[in-house]
Amino acid sequence: MxxxxxxxxxxxxxxxxCSSIVMADLQTKVRGQEVIACRLGEINEETQYAxxxxxxxxxxxxxxxxxxxxxxxxxHNEFSQTVDGxxxxxxxxxxxxxxxxxxxxxxxxxxxxxxxxxxATLLYELYKLNNVKIEPKIAGxxxxxxxxxxLLLKSPTTTEKDKKALAELEKLANVNxxxxxxxxxxxxxNLDKYTEKELINLDAxxxxxxxxxxxxxxxxxxxxxxxLKRKAQIEEEIKNTINEKELSLxxxxxxxxxxxxxxxxxxxxxxxxxxKTYEINDNIAVMxxxxxxxxxxxxxxxKNM
Length: 305
Ligand code: MG
Ligand code: MG
Ligand code: MG
Description:
alpha/beta, inorganic pyrophosphatase (n-terminal core)
């Protein structure tokens, strides 16, 4: 039998990692053949906290896929965010909660998407749909993903389905979502160990729209000024990335997870895509109430394009 692999996006976040492990579990049980969880980058501190807590194995790191490889994509669909070689792979399934862009397949596939706060919320539904029992570890991983993507249900991406899934998973995983969730999110705000280059790539997504390539990166913190102490060096690295990748715009959003605000360092030829909406002073746009790249920052850039 041909082996099947599952992975989330590059610069993986907690949803991409946990949903890969969870989907591998579900598919292994449903298909009766081993499906292998993989990842396209390093594990961040927040995700590591979740993996340690629920004693889950780290997915296997891969950089490219061979021609004809059967793949399942979770938490993304855009080819600019996926594994090298995807054009010649066989995309079997996509489970996602993002816009569909820059995506095509040669053959029919199973594509399941909903505008919910987290991929794991959709996986939770699939367990029910397939009548598969959710083990405590698996519940814990789904719970971690939902807490991460919705910032403990505070992000505007949060839906009733996410709330319902989280409430149920809390019981199955036997943790308190508030105490566990805050500890996990806080683990992800420990940014001191990263170089500036690592910092801007920690949770960065490459987008392509109307011929313009741009990146939007995001970090979580409990103190925006703390991160901005490194502003000069961060800007240096952003400029290098803009040159290397020929980007029109780089947005580095620093999100205060306690007060639900962001400030962004904005650089490139197309800073107008942000400044049409938010004033930029000294390369910084102050964005009150903004915490979601997907629902707040990206639509803004697309609208101003
Ligand atoms: Mg993600
Ligand atoms: Mg997600
Ligand atoms: Mg995210």
